[in-house]
Design a protein that fits this description.
- With 285 residues, the protein is mainly alpha-helical.
- The protein has 14 helices and five strands.
- The radius of gyration is 23 Å and the shape is globular.
- The protein starts with 14 loop residues before the first helix and ends in a 28-residue tail after the last strand.
């Protein structure tokens, strides 16, 4: 059966690709993403000699490229002993959706990985909780480890319960806006990059959009852009911003001054009514 690998058009617009990579780097990275040895999980065994043969390079050139991608670009990991290579951000674009065939394939490929430490870093960039759980089971040895004590098993169960109840931006989008499309995935991944992979921030923006009956991700993006431009780095920062924009009451004159995000205010004070949009006061965390 033929194998296909996804390379998003956003690859060519990524600042790291545009500003930091040489033409040779781009060629090498595309090879790492699409060569026949690649797997569903983003970790695969490949020798330097094989890479050199496929690319028409010397093994010295391949060694130099690997070093650049590991230490400068910080996009891959390579184990010299097991000859295994891991693409760190693989999950962002390839592991956001899971069905039974995908999970079965992932389980099969995980057990073939010899260096489990390669999987640990990839887990930080896997948006799908079910897939992340499979990685965690294998990395932490909770699947078939009969020597694990009952106390340790209980702890692992608690971890799994916490993980499965944690929302991620992709699932929240599907639940509230509809089917994920490639362009939306790129947009969500862009904002995850801006906010250091904090799904809860993207989710908070989407929740605000839903409460205001906005049916596109574009509205949530406007909120995210405003937070980012104001220097917000965490939900705590966003809470502080929301408090700043809460209505201020002058007790002496009984007047209000309503706050809001950019492009939401018409310049006049709003009158409360049953049909009024959700106020920032309602959206505090």
């Amino acid at each position: 059966m033929a194998k296909y690998r996804h390379v998003h058009t956003a690859f060519w617009e990524d600042p790291k690709v545009l500003e930091e990579m040489t033409p040779e780097d781009k060629y090498f990275y595309l090879y790492l993403l699409t060569n026949p040895k690649t797997t569903q999980i983003g970790v695969y065994a490949i020798t330097k000699k094989q890479m050199a043969f496929d690319l028409g390079y010397s093994t010295e050139s391949v060694t130099a490229l690997l070093d650049r991608f590991i230490n400068n670009h910080k996009l891959i990991k390579y184990n010299e002993d097991t000859r295994e290579l891991a693409i760190i951000h693989w999950g962002k674009y390839n592991l956001y959706k899971a069905g039974k065939p995908v999970i079965d394939c992932i389980k099969k490929e995980l057990v073939e990985v010899k260096d489990k430490t390669l999987l640990s870093e990839l887990m930080n960039y896997i948006p799908n909780e079910s897939i992340n759980n499979e990685f965690s089971r294998y990395v932490h040895g909770t699947s078939n480890d009969t020597s694990t004590t009952s106390g340790q098993k209980e702890k692992e169960k608690e971890k799994e319960n916490i993980s499965t109840t944690t929302e991620n931006a992709f699932s929240v989008y599907e639940q509230n806006f509809g089917m994920l499309k490639p362009l939306v995935i790129e947009d969500i991944n862009y904002w995850l990059d801006q906010f250091n992979n904090q799904h809860e921030i993207i989710i908070e923006a989407m929740k605000i959009a839903v409460k205001r009956n906005k049916t596109s991700f574009g509205y949530a993006e406007g909120i995210l852009k405003d937070w980012f431009n104001k220097g917000a780095k965490s939900l705590q920062d966003i809470k502080a911003l929301q408090l700043e924009h809460q209505p201020k009451v002058n007790i002496g004159t009984h007047t209000k001054q309503n706050g809001g995000y950019p492009n939401e205010s018409n310049g006049t004070n709003r009158q409360s009514s049953s049909n009024e949009s959700v106020s920032l006061n309602d959206l505090s965390l």
